[in-house]
Write a structure and sequence with these properties.
Radius of gyration: 18 Å
Distance between the termini: 39 Å
Number of strands: 0
Helix content: 55-70%
Oligomer: single chain
Structural class: mainly alpha
Number of domains: 1
Strand content: under 5%
Number of helices: 6
């Protein structure tokens, strides 16, 4: 007689399909809305343009200001990933804190050992995508999310 093997319990939540960022059509679909969201977040967080360009991976002045005026652009997978992390960070901050603190948090010195007294913004600018991922995971863990 064979006993049933334990497995993962069934979930009521569906598994969201991964978005294929190598697909030009998917990037085209997401790019304009991602840029619009990015510029709104940068405005809410009061981030200087120089720092915002750094968060995008070191975009030069010309393209940055063109994107600001006309966000209907095709972004590459790296830039969409960066913006995705920032949107997740923005969402988590607004769940955890009131609007004022949520908008200031990235610019405040942080005693968490991850940041070593620096601001989360400095940490993300110097560490790029891996640092953004760590900040996102930290905030998701604080709010009890996954």
């Amino acid at each position: 007689m064979r006993l049933p093997q334990p497995g993962y319990p069934a979930t009521r939540y569906g598994v969201a399909p991964l978005i294929d960022l190598t697909s030009r059509a998917e990037r085209q679909r997401l790019s304009a809305s991602a840029l619009k969201a990015f510029f709104k977040i940068v405005d809410r967080w009061s981030i200087r343009d120089e720092d915002a360009r750094s968060l995008l991976g070191g975009v030069s002045n010309g393209p940055y200001y063109n994107w600001k005026k006309q966000p209907e652009r095709l972004l590459d997978a790296d830039m969409l990933t960066r913006i995705s992390y920032l949107i997740g960070i923005f969402k988590a901050l607004n769940i955890l804190y009131g609007e004022k603190l949520a908008d200031e948090w990235v610019r405040l010195p942080n005693s968490n050992r991850i940041f070593g007294g620096r601001t989360p913004l400095d940490y993300m600018m110097s560490g790029g995508v891996p640092a953004m991922q760590i900040v996102r995971r930290l905030l998701d863990a604080r709010r009890g999310g996954v």
